[in-house]
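FYI - complex with flavin mononucleotide, inputs then prediction.
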Amino acid sequence: MSTLDIDVYATRTAAGDADEQFIQRWSPRAFSGEPLPIADLHILVEAARWAPSCFNSQPWRFVYAINGDDQWSAMLDVLMDMNQVWAGNAGALIAIVAKKTFDDGNPAPTASFDAGGAWMSMALQAQKMGLASHAMWGFHHDQAPAALGLPEDHAVQAMVAVGKPGERADLPEKYQEREVPSPRKPIEELLFHGKLG
Ligand SMILES: Cc1cc2nc3c(=O)[nH]c(=O)nc-3n(C[C@H](O)[C@H](O)[C@H](O)COP(=O)(O)O)c2cc1C
């Protein structure tokens, strides 16, 4: 059974009538190892680039490697071991990069927020295509800028593993236990009228 066939409703309870895609999206670690077709990568970026951003500055950049191509090992090496163990079977790695200045050189304080929105569009598009996606903060932050060729005013927000889902049974044992959609805090802990608390 592929990891995306896992019943998300076994561990997740809807608290309202939001579209099911939001509950169904989760972050598996089991990938099939098949390289992601470049055409699929373009569809993911197409979804991401329609995200909203401050002044329509579109501060997101995406640096990718496809499993097995000439950039793959270098990008995989940027990940911490705990992520490399499973992300090596992803179809592609995509660094979500925020450009922290506007084109006139002034600081762009919402660049991270904007890039996060673009990533979510990408994740939901991936799910619609039957692909799994998994964001990672666990990478070597000191090595990433040079490895990815980033100018000073660009910052990696997350590395993302994306690709065809794999089998839970093929993961190392300790990751098999964690291959479950996680629950969420109740709305009452998150929603406030006028003032927080
Ligand atoms: C910015 C960001 C960084 C993350 N870093 C990692 C990571 O380094 N390793 C990992 O296994 N999961 C990582 N995750 C996945 C989260 O743990 C996961 O999204 C969270 O537990 C919610 O689960 P879900 O995405 O399956 O709904 C990260 C997620 C985000 C959004």
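Residues 36-165 form a domain with the NADH Oxidase fold (CATH 3.40.109.10). The pocket of flavin mononucleotide is lined by residues 26-27, 83, 135-138, 158, 181-182 (CB under 6 Å).
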